[in-house]
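Quick note —
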Amino acid sequence: MADQMMGTTAQDVDIADNDTQGKEIYTYAAPWTVYAMAWSHRYDPQAQFRLAIGSYVERYSNSIQIIKKRPSDQAEDLRAMNDTNLPPCSSTSQQDTSQMYKACEFDHPYPCTKVLWNPDISTNGRDMVATTGDYLRLWNLEDDGSGTGTMNARREIMLNSNKKSDYCAPLTSFDWNETDPSLIGTASIDTTCTIWDITTQKAQTQLIAHEREVFDLAFAQGKDIFASVGADGSVRMFDLRRLDHSTIIYESPNGSPLLRLEWNKQDPNYLATFTEDSSMTFILDVRMPSTPVAELGSHNACVNATAWAPHSYCHICTAGDDSQALIWDLSSTSSRHVDESIPMPFMTETHNLNPILAYNAEGEINNLQWSTTQW
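Predicted structure written out below.
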C-alpha cells in the first residue's frame, strides 16, 4: 500500500508516494501559481490517481485543471513509443512527463478558494467537483470518448447565498459532507455560514457564525456537526439539529485570526487550526475547550496548511512558508480502536514535540492534501 500526499509550491504540485518499495516524488509543473487542490477518491481505470488544482492569478479569468497519473505500465509503453533510448521510469522529470498529464482544463471566474471532489464514489454518484470563489459552483466531469483519459467539464450548478441581490459576498472556503453528499457548507466574509442542499439547490440554513469574516468551515464525522474559524480568532462548533446556539471551543491569544481548521476523521474529538502569520499549529479537544492539548512548532515561518492522516488517528502533517512539510506523531501508542472513548495520549510537554518526518520543497508550500486512497 502507499500513502499519497500532495503539496503546492508556487507553480509546482509535488506528490510524495510512500510505498512498500520506497519513496517516490512526482512533480507536475502548472502554468500558473497553484493554491486550491484536492484528491479524487473515485476509481478510474485509466489513472492511478486524479487531482484537481486551481490557479491563483490576480485577474478575473482563472482555471481549474484535472491532473491524472497514468498507471506505470501505460507510462512505460508511452515512453517506449516516444523514445526507445529513454531509461526505465524513475523519480525524475522524465518520469513526471510520461506519467502525469492534464486530462481537463476549464475556466473559473476569479481564483477558487477551495476545490473538492464529490465524496459519493458509488456507481450512482456523478463525477463532480465543487469550487468556491464568488459563488459555489458544481462541475460535472465526463470522459470525452477519445480513449486517452481526457475529460470534458460542464457547469451544473451555481448557488448564491444572497437572496436579495445577484452580488454574493466572496466565499472563503467550504466542505462537502461525506456522510450526506447532498450537503455542502460554505464560509463567507459576510460573517455567515450557509448549508446547501445541492439536490434542491436551496439553502437549508444560513447563520451568522462569527463576529467578523469566516475563513473556513469543516464537517466532523456524520452529517450534523460542523465547525468554523474566522477573523475574530474563535473556533465555533455547530449542530444542525440545534442551531439556536453554538459552542466556542477555542479563542486565539490576542484575538489573532484563525485561518483554517481540520477535523480528525479517525477521532472526531480532535481538530487542528492555526492563526495568521504564525508558525504554530494548535490541536484542540472538543471535550476540553479553551486550551490546546498540543502545540506544534518546528516551522521557521508561518503555517499555511494542515492535514490529518486519513488512516491514522494520531498523525498529522503541517506545511508552511519555510518550504517544509512536517509529519507529527501525536501519540506514543501505535494503534487504537476508533470507538474507544479514551483521550489521545499526547505528550505532556507539548512544546517539546518534534516531527517524525520532514519533506523540504523548493519553495514556500501554499497548500497540502493527504489522499484517503491507498494502493
